Amino acid sequence: MTGKASNNSLLEGSITKNLFALAAPTMLGFMFQMFYDLVDMIWVGRISANAVAGVTIFSTVFWLVNVLNDIIGTSSISLISQSYGKGDEDRTSLCIEQTLTFKALVAVIASILLFIFLKPLLGFFTNDPEVFSLGLEYGYIRIFFLPIMFSSYTVNTAFRCVGDAKRPMIIMIVAAILNIVLDPIFMFDTIPYTSIPGLGLGVFGAALATVISVSVTFIIGFGFILSNKTKVKINPSRLLKLNLEIDRKLISIGLPSGAEAFSRNLVGIVILKFVSLYGTDAVAAMGIGNRLFGFAFMPLVGLSMAGSTIVGQSLGRDNIQWAKDTAKTAAKYGVLIMMVASIFVFIFPTEIMKIFIQESSVVAMGIPMLRIITPGLIMSGVMMGIGSVFSGSGYNIPYLVSSMIGKWGVQIPLLFIVVYTLNLPVYWVWISFLLSNFTEMVVMLMAYKQGKWESMRV
């Protein structure tokens, strides 16, 4: 890692150019990863609607433990990027090392707890024995490899925080391609569209393909770090030691963001329970929608991560105006991209649903869902862009406040009224997402204008 002068490249020249220099590789990497998720759901949809429902239910439960990754990962962005922006090489390395070590330890604990509680959690959502069995079949191996998944996230975050977005892109593209190749081989007795025999492992094969690809790409990314030829440098001997000062910050700085993620995932569980009251077809449609929205969301993730890195480095140099301009630019492009995506989905919802599943009842459920929820991503474009000042500065309370108000204050009460009191059709569930997103956007904008993030340093 070099000195201060070379750390200024993101704080000079064109903000748009700097933003997309980081965001474009990040977008591409995440979109490849989400493209795999879409392909994975297409293959699962070839098994049955029950398989889609089982995977959807497990995935909703699984991402609840991802709150722990959100807590530590969000903290690491501000710690690493601000240390790097100051030109403090040893502090930057220490933050990366502790993120790797501490997050892996937390993942081991989370895996144990999820092993214990998986059956009752799945049973909460379904009494269909086939859906329950498929959820377990898909889930156990994913849980076992949770520490590797968390560590892989850390490697990618470390590279982005020092301004190297290309290596994470390569890592994620390799993972996606490997997943796409392995999926049909592992899942089916005969690989679709060929006469080549497969392993016939069903949904377990889909999960196995995922954990193999994550493991391989973690090894590649960690190999990049150990090569000592990148901006990310660590002292391997320090990986076996906990640094209480850094670890406390990894928890405390990201705690509001983690609480928001927990709240968001808990809301997802509650919403899934509401949706399950409309039947397996509705759950399957929502599972497909979740993958599609996740794919559409990736450009926003790229812009947010890039913006957070530049904001963190800007605040490390006390350049507040550069941080503001970066966030506004990220929000602007996020809105434009999501407008294009919304128009496309509104015009072709039937064709999009039929890519994943041919069962007409599921397709019928999915068409209004896509048309109603997708425009809410435009509001998410504003939130993710402006929100980069919070994750970059380490002031993450607005994420929690906006989520609590939008989801628990607006969406969940509305769902109780819609489902239990008025017994309205399922599309009113989809409308609740729009109202929640609008509320969260307003709260985030208010927090940005208050300016408390401007004085935050970690």
TrEMBL record:
Matching InterPro entries: MATE_fam, MATE_MdtK, MdtK-like
Subcellular location, principal: membrane
Spans through the membrane: 19-36, 42-65, 100-118, 138-156, 168-187, 199-226, 266-286, 292-312, 333-357, 369-390, 397-421, 427-448
Locations listed in the record: Cell membrane
Membrane topology: Multi-pass membrane protein
Keyword presence, Transmembrane helix: yes
Keywords: Antiport, Cell membrane, Ion transport, Membrane, Transmembrane, Transmembrane helix, Transport
Function: Multidrug efflux pump.
Family: Belongs to the multi antimicrobial extrusion (MATE) (TC 2.A.66.1) family.
Matches recorded under PANTHER family: FMN_FAD EXPORTER YEEO-RELATED, MULTIDRUG RESISTANCE PROTEIN NORM-RELATED
Name the record gives this protein: Probable multidrug resistance protein NorM
